[in-house]
Amino acid sequence: MPAAIATIDEVQALLAAEGYVCGRPLATVVFLALRLGRPLFLEGEAGVGKTEIAKALAAGLGRQLIRLQCYEGLDAAQAVCEWNFAAQMIAIRTAEAAGGADRDALRGELFTEDFLIERPLLQAMRPQAGGPPVLLIDEIDRTDEPFEAFLLEALSDFQVTVPELGTIRAEVPPVVVITSNRTREVHDALKRRCLYHWVDFPAFDREMAILRARAPEASATLSREVVAFVQRLRAEDLFKKPGVAETIDWAKCLLALDVVALSPEVIADTLGAILKYQDDIQKLEGSAARRLLEEVRRDLAAAPG
Asked: What span, in angstroms and rounded, lies between the C-alpha atoms of 237 and 96?
C-alpha cells in the first residue's frame, strides 16, 4: 500500500481530489484492496462510475493506468501478448537474403522480446517507474467462461506464461480493478479472489456533489433540477436507466446551450443526452416530461434548504 494512504478518509480525499466523490463503504473497500493487495471487483449498472474509480485511483496514486477492455471472444493471447509476425517475416527474409542463415539460431532470435507485442495483462506484470500500475479489467461480463478461468489463474499468482519465454511474474502486484455491468453472472471462483462492492446509483446529495465536481460552472439551481430530474427518471419504467455519466453529460449539454433552468421544450430537445434508446425517449415525449418536471419542482420546493 502507498505510504501516503493510511486511512479510509485519506482514500476519500485522494479520490475527491481527482473529481470522484464516493461514500465511505466504497472508500473502505478501496482502502482494503490497497492494504491487502487484493483485486477489487465492482459491479453495478452502466454509468454509475465503476470505470472512473480506476482512473481516479491511478491519477491520485500517480500510477500508470493499463486498461483491458473486455469483449465477446477475447482470449488469452489478445489479453497477454502476441508475436509481431510482420517483423518476424522481415527478419527471416533479411536472413535469407544474407545467405547462410542458421535455422536454429534464427528460430531462437525470432522468439525474443524484440518481437513481442505486449498486451495489458503482460504490461501490468512489468515493473513501472512510478510503482505498480492500476490494471483496469473493464466489463468482464462481456467475456466467456474460458477467459474467466484464465484470468483466475493469472490473478491468483500475478503471473502469466508465454510458452516461448517462460513464466513472467510481477515483482510487485498491480492494483487490479475489475468491473461488471452484470449482463451475465460472473463465476464465483473469480469473485472469491476479489473484494466485492456493488456500486449503486448515488443519493441526491452525493450526485449533487459529483455534478459540482465535474461541472462546477453549472448554477446551483440548474444542478438541483438536473439531478432531481434524472433521479426521478430512474424511477420510471425505462429499458436503460440513466447513470451518473448521463447526468454529467446532460448538464454539460445544457450549459453549452446557455440553459439556466429546465423547461419541457429544453428537455425534449436534449433527451438524447440522458436516454439512449428510442423507446425510452418516446415515453418521455410530450406530457410525460412536463409531468416529471412539475413533480421535480414540487419536491425541490418542499425540500428543506
From this structure: 68
Element spanning 280, H or E: helix 278-284
Provide the CB-side half-sphere exposure for 1 (13 A, CA). 17
Question: What secondary structure does DSSP assign to 226-271, as a single string?
Answer: HHHHHHHHHTS--SS---HHHHHHHHHHHHHTT--S--HHHHHHHG
pLDDT digits (tens, 9 = 90+) for 9-50: 999 999 999 999 999 999 999 999 999 999 999 999 998 999
Round to whole Å and give the CA distance between 44 and 57. Answer: 18
Do residues 127 and 64 lie in contact, with contact meaning Cβ atoms separated by under 8 Å? no
Q: What are phi and psi of 166, to 5 degrees?
A: 100, -165
Neighbours of 196 (CB within 10 A): 13
Q: How far apart are CA 11 and CA 14, in angstroms?
A: 5
Share of the chain above pLDDT 90, in %: 69
- Alpha-carbon distance of 148 to 72, in angstroms, equals 12
Cα–Cα dist 68/137, whole Å: 5
pTM value is 0.88
Overall residue count recorded for the chain in this entry = 305
DSSP count for the chain of H helices, then E strands: 15, 9
Q: Which spans in 4-75 are helix H? A: 8-17, 24-36, 50-61
Give tens-digit pLDDT for 238-281: 999 999 999 999 999 999 999 999 999 999 999 999 999 999 99
Strand partners, 197: 42
Beta strands in 44-151 (DSSP E): 65-69, 81-83, 116-118, 134-138
CA distance 202 to 23: 9
